[in-house]
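[job 4471] stage=fold_predict status=RUNNING
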Amino acid sequence: MPALMLLSALCMTHPALASTVINGDLSGDHVWTPANSPYVIQDARILPGASVTVEPGVVVKMSPKDASGPFIVQGTLTLGRADAAAQVIVTSLLDDVVGGDTNGDGDATTPNPGDWRNISASAGGVIRMYHTTMLYGGANTGYDYVCKGYCGYTKYADGQLVNDGGSVEVHTVSFSRSIGEHVSQFSGVSVLEGSNFYNAPRGVKSMGGELSIEQSTFSMLNMGFDVGATTLMLSGNQFTRTPGNRLETTGGSYLSDGRNTSDGAVLKVQGDVEREFVFPAEGFTYRMGSTRILPTGTMDFSPGVIVKVDQEMGILVEGSFKIGSATSTQWSLVTSLLDDTQGGDSNGDGANTAPGQGSWNSIRIEQGGTAQLFFTELRYGGAMTGYDYHCSYGSCGYTYYANGQLFNHGGILEASHVRFVDGYGQLYVHGGTTTVSESMFTHQRYRVVDVVGGALSLTQSAFLDAATWGQGVSVQDGASAVMTENWWADPSGPKTTENPGGIGVPLSGPASFAPWLTTAPDLLIPTFTDPSAFVPEELGCTTQCYSNVLFLPGIMGSRLYWTDPSCLLVNCENKLWVPNRDDDVEKLYMATGTSLLDNIYAKEDDIVSSSTIGATYNSLFVDLNTLVASGTIV
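[job 4471] inference complete, writing structure tokens
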């Protein structure tokens, strides 16, 4: 008998635990409950008009990629609940840690990144996620050979969660162990809020649509976000052990609240700038690839940024470029990608590379373009002379280059409190109007200033370090150069035939240089703030806050109205203020500074200015008018 019992044990199988299998098209409304969990998804699709609600505590297991495609959402999928403590878990069928050994194979299989494909919102589809964890998805990059009704190559997205034209909301969701990125977007609108993105090559990748990432954490990723042709909004995110991010500006837009932090993350920016892009001084070191600001575009770097330019790349300005502010003495830096002294090791190669004069090209202003630089240091730029075959700005061909970190090719250039340091050449003026004041030039290999056309006004500035003058200052016939009240590295002034006793910086060509300074001006010495040290200022009220609308007894102001979009009556307009029931007041509540309801409106001339309360509020009105006059309020 004992021998028979042993044989029976050896022949035992691992029975699959009870589960609910979901397969095929889902119509109508469905609720998935913990009692019927885990749910196993096999080639399922939520049809338009249908809905699936996944209750907190449910485990959803996705079938392997070779047996199932994406879980397509054309209707509505809601996972979890905002007020629930229990999580929804979305994981691999091979994951026995949650929901047990659902496939009944014991320890024969274990989960890995890329086991299953994705949950995908198609056009018109809606996905809402609350308190959910997603694991082991994102199977297969690009095309994959599959047999599903037919055999052939089918394109799949890399993300565990995909938006392909729908609406996706993610709140307090944890993403981990994807083989590609956690979230992919081709089109549609996605809001990712209060979530965690861990352990994957990329956190988020978007190739179109609108994307908002708010108060989320990116950790242990090669790249936090990789975004192109997308309206991107960032707010209060944290990046740790995530060195890279990329923003392709062509066809997209960008808005940051300036409260994103990191331990040394880089945001690479490249492409055509067609709209307004503002880059605040926050937790990113900005890395510039080939960038062209089109005539309709604006690129504005706030005071205090660190900008690093890729090898042999530059910024071409046909629209508007600005860095720093005339009213802020916080210094910015534009330098080589190879410069590790500020902003860290942004190219990730340790000490294997070092910057040199001419490591990058220039900020080049074309006819019709404008550039303003304030309290900025330029380092290691000014590469290339004359025509050179080069692939940049989206095309390959012979392009005119000049030896200047700043190169005005026919636009309007203003530079105040700018330090030109270690450029192959420093300032090249080929046309347009250039104004430089209270600036400094030092350490160059070629000319300090080269004026071959246009008009230059350079005043209250200093040429330092006689040993690094290079070929000095050159002004060609036909150009205009007013260079008065400058320090020419010697009290005797510039070395030129028009100044026989001068032994300072060499000057050739027609330029006005007298009077000059006989002592070096007391120019500001810059200090830079590393982006990794950025700490956002404390916000004001964030909970139990008050509306910015003041309701005074007896003074009603504008009447407020709202139209219920779900109303089927002929007249669906509801007057919320003055209210006639408590529900009207509740509709006026605010959250995080905005109304809970959209489209609350007032009507022209539909205003009650005051009541018969006499002079009760006269002193308040005086105080408010005083605050308006001082600019404190508007």
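[job 4471] summary: The helical segments are 2-10, 582-586, 618-629.
[job 4471] exit 0
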